[in-house]
Amino acid sequence: MSAVSRLTAALAVLALLAACGSEKSEPSPMGAAVGTLAKATLSRMSARRAGGEAKTPAAPSRAEIEKYGMPILRAVIPSRGADALVTISDRKGPVVTWSTTDGTTFSLRDGVLIQTRGLGPDLMSARAPSLGQLRQNGGTHQRVYYFLGADDRTTTRTYDCTVQVRGGESVTIFGRAHATTRVTEECVRPQGRITNEFWLEGATVRKSRQWVSGLTGYIDLERVVD
Fold this sequence. Notes:
Blueprint: H1 3-20, H2 29-50, H3 62-66, E1 72-77, E2 82-92, E3 95-99, E4 105-109, E5 112-117, E6 123-127, H4 131-134, E7 140-148, E8 154-173, E9 176-189, E10 192-201, E11 204-213, E12 217-225
Antiparallel strand pairs: 1-2, 1-12, 2-3, 3-4, 4-5, 6-7, 7-8, 8-9, 9-10, 10-11, 11-12
Helix pairs in contact: 1-2
InterPro entries: GfcB, YmcC_sf
Keywords: Lipoprotein, Signal
Organism: Tabrizicola soli
């Protein structure tokens, strides 16, 4: 099964479990929220295979998501048509791991992506900047990515990165506006370049676009509920 199929199946399974897991007679808010996103993803992928456009169901409301009563992160992988609400499966100090029910996980250190599992060729680990480094306009650092390839061999990519603090920017996530500071991290190596973006709200990475790998591309993350 392809990585795209696994992620799509994960959305459908997550929606089913969330809907069936409630002991109440009415559907759980999380079931409705995840179900909406799962249907949207499946609809988009079906339309893509058919060469057409899909009607995207309305996104769940913030009230529906907050009723779930726990931290929620939205993870979107544009290259794969994947769009999911994920919850915390593990926490070790500043490193928080978010996961779907099929075991696909994203590990973030203070909001900065350092590891994935379940995407096929995964980001095994990363030497990534701290939030302090991302706040230093003009600051430089090295970023190192370690990948597991299709042949199960680890490869390394090293980038020289420069931070640019772009200034204040308001972002709206599920109907709530957040006053953030936008930061870009421009990273280069002889074979190419990547750009990571972060929207910082105090000590929280409220929103980000971070590079995962050459096959996956970027992942968009939004911290919906703290």
